[in-house]
Amino acid sequence: MSSEPAKTTIFYDGSCPLCRAEISHYRGQKGAEALAFEDVSQTAPSACDLTQSAAMARFHVRLADGRLLSGAEAFVAVWRGLPRWRWAANLADLPGVLPVLELLYRGFLPVRPYLSRAFAIFATPPGTR
User: Fold this and answer.
1) Under a CB-based contact definition with an 8 Å cutoff, are residues 77 and 8 in contact?
2) Cα–Cα distance between 84 and 121 in angstroms, integer?
3) Rounded to two decimals, what is the model's pTM?
4) What are the residue boundaries of the structural domains of the chain, listed by start?
5) What is the pLDDT of residues 74-102, one digit of tens each?
6) Whose CA is closest to 60, among 106, 101, 15, 9?
7) How many CB atoms lie under 10 A from the CB of residue 126?
8) Rounded distance, CA 61 to CA 73, Å?
9) Inter-CA distances, 72 with 2, 34, 45, 105, 122, Å
């Protein structure tokens, strides 16, 4: 039995340059030591109730208490654990904001592959493209 406290686990698409950049940002934040990061692009997630295809299709977070969240709700859970992002979580807690964030996230999902490719192009230093 581990004496280490359970962490919030972020399941992310490591094959997506945009996703990698976001996760890299989160990893560098104060509070990130309470988070575990799991790239699900190459292997199935450790969460037995989350398939690899589901994990690749939407952002998922497993809270320390075992609850699995996805979409906007998962982002808010991450923000809540990072002091510099807590303002965004507090904003999402206002009445009606989370459903709007979820609608925006669902609108983002179909364009994510295109944005990711564009991000990869612009993030590549000139001369190495």
Assistant:
1) yes
2) 29
3) 0.84
4) 8-123
5) 999 999 999 999 999 999 999 999 999 99
6) 9
7) 5
8) 9
9) 31, 20, 19, 6, 26
Residues 6+ apart with CB under 8 A from 78: 8, 10, 26, 35, 61, 85
How many angstroms separate the CA atoms of 28 and 35, rounded?
11
Cβ atoms of 83 and 34 within 8 Å: the answer is no
For residues 118 and 112, give the distance between their C-alpha atoms in angstroms, rounded to a whole number.
Answer: 10
pLDDT tens digits, one per residue of 64-79: 999 999 999 999 999 9
- Within 10 A of 112 (CB to CB), how many other CB atoms are there? 16
Tokens of 17: 């340059």
Structure tokens at 21: 């950049």
Q: Tell me how far apart the alpha carbons of residues 114 and 19 are, in angstroms, rounded to a whole number.
A: 13
Joined tokens for residue 48: 């037995």
CB 8 within 8 A of CB 78: yes
CA-nearest of 96, 85, 127, 117 to 18 is 117
- HEC sequence for 69-86: EECHHHHHHHHHHCHHHH
